[in-house]
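This part of the workshop introduces the protein records we will be handling. Backbone structure tokens are a discrete shorthand for how the chain folds in space. Once this layout is familiar, the rest of the handout is easier to follow. The record below serves as our worked example for the rest of this section.
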Amino acid sequence: MKIAYSLGFLPTYVFREIVQLNSKGFEIDIFLPRSTSTSKFWLDIVPRHKLADDIIIKQTVTSKFITCSIPSLALLFMKECIPVFLRHPAKFCSNAFLSLKKRSFRYFLLGASLAGHIDRRTLFIHSHFAETSAFAAMWAGRILRKPFTLTTHAVDIFVPTREDMIRFLLCEADRIFTISEFNRKYISKRYGKHLEDKIDVTYLGLDFSSLPEREGGPGTIPKIICTASGLGEKKGVPVLLEACRILKERNLQFSCRVIGSDTSGLLLEGFRKQVEKLGLRDVLQFEGLLKSDEVMDRLAEADIFVLPSICAQNGDMDGIPVSLMESMAVGVPTVSTSLSGIPELIENGKDGILVPPGNSVELADAIEKLLLDADFAEELGIQGSAKARSQFNVTGYVGVLLEKWAEYLRL
């Protein structure tokens, strides 16, 4: 049994999903863009050596269909699309006309190109994020008469490039999965109540066998860790910087490390300069991009994990960050904000601490409480680990996916 994954990049949580599906007997073909900086960025992070022989990464799809000149498009059409047209002339033509009507002809050509690489034994096509790779998967599915399903996350639905195309994509999907109840309600409200019946909430899950044993505990200087992938505005890194300044001003001992980088490194460099400007060099360090195993090593040593997520000016925000699940599962006392789907993971004061988004003073207060009250911190760590391990595990998550796929796609 074979599934095709059409992805713009391969984050660690999708990697875990694919490995788990493979352990259930599915062959997986992963289709990624050819040599884009984003796909390379993530491929450098995930532990590809753990992939079985029947999980194949194919960097065969070119995004040039979307941006190239008309003459170049014609050449791509001849090379990538004509063979698909010859095999599926009726479906090719009908969908080409529909794409013209929907003002998405280039995305259709990208989908036709993808269709040319999909194995005939493939049962269906799945995508993560309602973006270019999902549009390609949708059109490929229509041409090949194969079901198409989609998992939505955050920026893809909160800040769509073209809302009309996202609405069409969601309508065309045979099934929609999303990573929080907050998202389910958001999609229904923004993109149409008629979608409600085909949306399932599937919380992303962790592979606990790959998580380290916690090494944190009493030491000379408590360690605070923040994993802020991409260092984007929604991660709230400036809020953490200000909270660290406040904590230092209060003469509290701590060491804070921020893990993550943007693809260009410009944001990373900018934050490092801010650390110098604020006089925080002795307590705050930006480590940059680390491989997933290295991130886990840092997490195991942490006394507190912090992710001060905010809503960016363009409306982008986190869903339920996997980094929060990981910190809780390892047993690290965790602090975040009452934003989006995060309260579905963290119950304030019971298994973590939530503060208002953007409030550096309350963030500093929460961190201070954990620094000064070891018993409270330990209890949060215990309760957080129990919750993450019982409700956010990859086995249960993939089990729900398989159940829904079997139910709605008649597998």
